[in-house]
Amino acid sequence: MGPGGAPILGTVEEGCRTLADGGVHAFIALGTYRSWRACEVLAELRRTAVPVARLVSPSAHVSSTAVIGDGALVMGGVFIGAEVVIGDLFTAHGGVVVEHHGTIGHNVLLAPGVSLCGCSRIADHCFLGVGTSVIPEIRIGEGTMTGAGSVVVRDLPAGVVALGNPCRPLRPVADGDEVPSPELVARLRATLHPSYSAGS
């Protein structure tokens, strides 16, 4: 039995075989501490031609010109503006605003109340904490995490935990953080589906 007494239905390989034969769309939900594993599961689903769903709440507003990747979860009250391009395994909680012409990589989580101004670029494997605000044209590097209430006014490098107003790097990402380590990010980049690339 799994969490909450839910049955464990089998291995990823068994699930891929079953789904490939049944015409069912898969959805991946493993949580932030296992987000790197979701990337591997997505790659396996693609290798076996299993379609992957994206879930968008009817109370979210997504521009008709926005592009959202597979395995996305967009909660109610989210706004995604014109010409935004979002990668696979994206999660946006309530109150998130992503303004026009932004780019968000794969495996990115935006906590409640995150606000990304126009033309911002968030690379793969990032986690922006509750209420983080990002001014226009900012770049946040791969595998970076921001603390709650951060105000990002300068580009942030890859692989750091950053916080504050203005937001500054505090330390490198470490094991146990809610984003994968730089070593794990490099492994994912080398092993995933050919369409996978850093969203920088």
Describe this structure in words.
The chain is an alpha/beta fold and 200 residues long. The protein folds into 2 domains: 3-47, no CATH class; 55-171, Hexapeptide repeat proteins (UDP N-Acetylglucosamine Acyltransferase, domain 1, 3 Solenoid), CATH 2.160.10.10. It has 3 helices and 19 strands. Strands 1-4-7-10-13-16-18-19 form an 8-stranded mixed beta sheet, with no helix packed on it. The longest helix is centred in the first third of the chain and has 13 residues, at 35-47. The radius of gyration is 17 Å and the shape is globular. The relative contact order is 0.12.
The major β-sheet equals:
8 strands, mixed
**Regions with little confidence, pLDDT below 50 for 5+ residues:** 193-200
CATH-assigned homologous superfamily of the largest domain: Hexapeptide repeat proteins
CATH architecture of the largest domain: 3 Solenoid
Proportion of helical residues = 10-25%
Q: Which descriptor suits the 3D outline?
A: globular
Distance from first to last alpha carbon: 39 Å
Give me the secondary-structure category: alpha/beta
The CATH topology annotation of the largest domain reads as UDP N-Acetylglucosamine Acyltransferase, domain 1
**Order of strands side by side in the largest beta sheet?**
1-4-7-10-13-16-18-19
Mean pLDDT: 87
Strand content: 15-25%
Helical run tally: 3
**H and E order:** HHEEEEEEEEEEEEEEEEEEEH
Total of domains: 2
Number of strands: 19
Radius of gyration: 17 Å
**Given this structure, which CATH class of the largest domain is correct?**
Mainly Beta
